[in-house]
Amino acid sequence: MTANISTTLRLVAAIAVSATSAALFADHFNGGRTVPIHRLAPLDAEGDKISPTADLPEPISQAKTCSQCHDTYLMTGGSHFRTGLDTNDAPESVEVEPWFWADEKTGTSIPLSLHAQPGAYRPADLGLSCWQWTKMFGRTFPGGGIGSDPRAVGEVAGFKQRWFVTGPLGPNCLACHQQRGYDSSEWARQVLRENFAGAATAASGIGAVEGMNERLDDSWDGLRAENPDDHLFKVPEKTSYDSRRFDAKNRCVFDVGRPKSENCLACHAVSEAGVPSHSIAGDVHLQRGLTCVDCHKNGIDHRIATTSCRDCHTGPKGAGPTPKHAGIPLVHFEKLSCTVCHSGVTSDGARAQVRTARANRIGIYGRAQWATDVPYVLEPVFVKNAEGKIEPRRMTWPSYFAEIGTNGTVKPLAPDAVAAFCQRGTNDFTKAVLAKALNALKAKKPDASYGFIGHGKLWTVEDDGTNATVVASENAAAAPVSWPVGHDVRPARQARGAAPVKCADCHTSDSDFFFGKVVPTGPITDAEVEPVQQTEFLGLSSTYHAVLGTTFAMRPLFKVFLWSVFGLLCLFGMAAAAVVLNKLGAKISEGTLSFAWGLAKWIVDMGFVVCLVYLALSGVIGWMCGGMTGWWLVLHMVAGGGLAACAAIIAVVRASERTEKFEMSLIWLAWIVCAVGTVFTAVMPMMTVAGGDGQVFLLWSHRLVALAFAAVSCLVCRSCCRRRR
């Protein structure tokens, strides 16, 4: 035993201090734009080179192997390697997806966290050792952290501590960095078999690992004992390498690089329960060629810093397109997170049950069925966060058998402690089955009280002597646990509130956003549970938002009314402007010498005619013959400016003369309208507004309106000549 302890401690120490001399490692980047080929000799936990042809070769230590070039000691404090053993691992306010101690047979779903996350238990609170945690959840974290920390491995031996048998679960760099061929399902299987040392080697495909440390006794001593059985699965783990992966110098090529999205999704995938794979649209960023690490970045210390939506889409250096958000009141951006409208994996953003890799073990494949429905997670449930902003969350309600204290506190019971009392099938966890299980627990320990947490309630048995019934009551331990939704991000056309429903997606008297009924989840199939209205999670008044939603039904009529008033006011304004211009023109005419004033008006008229004639000729020639280039184009633009200036002057000084009679006023109105249309369609193509199709439309509009303007101008001249005769 002493030799075994010494070997284990040496293993732990070797991993923990693999690169304590950080000064020895210089920055390897020299300006190259390619990932270097990682052809190097793999090392074992002692730092010795692996000999693939040895009779009993050691498994590869990722920490030792990678430390030949990288300072792996700096990585031990990374975001994926937090242990919960340090007070500064993560702030207590951090709300991320918890881990779940889940068991379908007993209906257990206990949220766990390595830091003091609201609504989740610490492992030690439930008597879970670091080794137990490592085996239970090692499937979805890349080793290291609590799986190899000296403080964790140094815990006393016993039923809950099998470090002597398994050794530590060291950092698995390939889980994130291997570019192809990494088998996350094999990693999960090996961890479950307690083959901690060789799990990474097997998952990478460099070698195979046989045997099952899970079948060995707690007192197993690998240095002295014989194999307990010659069966393939009843022997200690044994590594055998694929010799084709090694060269003559026992070097191996590790196909590594920046983590690919597939690496991340092995542990962070989420999908709607029951949806076929072809119905999953996926994140819009991944569809456009981005990867997870484009937004979730880290340095050599592996502390991840996330680029927010605002940083990329509205920040001064943002690389993403700037959203228009046309017509959306600014209050939405003050009170809502971007993810309210743009994130979620469910179809059309509707509330539904989802399953995650961490909680429901999706993405692990093999002969056995790994995925579970427990815990029952709902998405999206909208909640006001600590910053006062509304955000979508995934939410579930804890469920477990518990011992009830005298003051109403509950202590969760481990699934194996109550499994014998839950005689049921997979889908028939009824109140009757629950009552039998609670009574059986009571019979075993009469001086204790028992209940079941689930569906947001505490369920206990009341027995009046003739009949035992299960009743539900309030208890703080039954409160839901939730965490923010970040993905999948949907494009604008699929966002909440997009066309055709727009505002009505949220602002009606019965919208799901404010008034949807969220039914607390749990395993009891015949539980009668009161649904919770969304406004309770939002901390908002249901009466106010019902009234506000009703007003939105009148918005179309209100818009028509306001636009009508706006149009009438514009007409009155134009009429007033016309009167002012008439008066101004008359005043100018009266205060000017007759000959000089007539000459000036004649010059303006002639300038207008000359410009109009050239524009008409060059425009028609350019239109019909394609000759609107070179000097034709330059002179066309000059003449256009002259025509616009003359038209503006004529509109001022000739208005009073050409509105003396009603018929003349109508022709003058048509002239003004055509003049405005001609100028507008000439200047709009110069603006960076219209695209290719818009430019074509404006070109044809300009041609037609300009011809109409020329025709109406001729009509005005003809009418003026008649008036003079």
Describe this structure in words.
- The chain is an alpha+beta fold and 725 residues long.
- It has 4 domains: 2-99 and 120-257, no CATH class; 268-395 and 485-540, no CATH class; 400-478, no CATH class; 573-724, no CATH class.
- A hairpin with a 5-residue loop joins β11 and β12 (390-396).
- α23 (594-625) runs antiparallel to α24.
- The radius of gyration is 38 Å and the shape is elongated.
- The N and C termini lie far apart (128 Å).
What's a quick, concise take on this entry?
With 725 residues, the chain is α+β, with helices and mostly antiparallel strands.
How many separate domains?
4
Strand order in the sheet with the most strands: 7-10-11-12-18
What is the oligomeric state here?
Answer: single chain
Number of helices: 26
Question: In percent, how much strand structure appears in the residues?
Answer: 5-15%
Task: Give the rounded overall mean pLDDT.
Answer: 82
Largest sheet: 5 strands, antiparallel
Keyword list:
alpha+beta, five-stranded antiparallel sheet, 26 helices
Secondary structure elements and their pairing?
Layout: H1 2-16, E1 38-40, H2 62-66, H3 72-75, E2 99-103, E3 108-112, H4 130-137, H5 150-153, H6 163-166, H7 174-177, H8 184-192, H9 199-204, E4 207-210, E5 238-241, E6 252-254, H10 261-268, E7 270-272, H11 284-287, H12 292-295, E8 296-297, E9 305-306, H13 309-313, H14 331-335, H15 339-342, E10 352-356, H16 357-360, E11 377-384, E12 390-396, E13 400-404, E14 410-412, H17 415-418, H18 431-444, E15 449-454, E16 457-463, E17 468-473, E18 481-484, H19 512-515, E19 517-518, E20 532-533, H20 534-538, H21 542-551, H22 555-590, H23 594-625, H24 630-653, H25 662-683, H26 692-724
Antiparallel strand pairs: 1-6, 2-3, 4-5, 7-10, 8-9, 10-11, 11-12, 12-18, 13-14, 13-15, 15-16, 16-17, 19-20
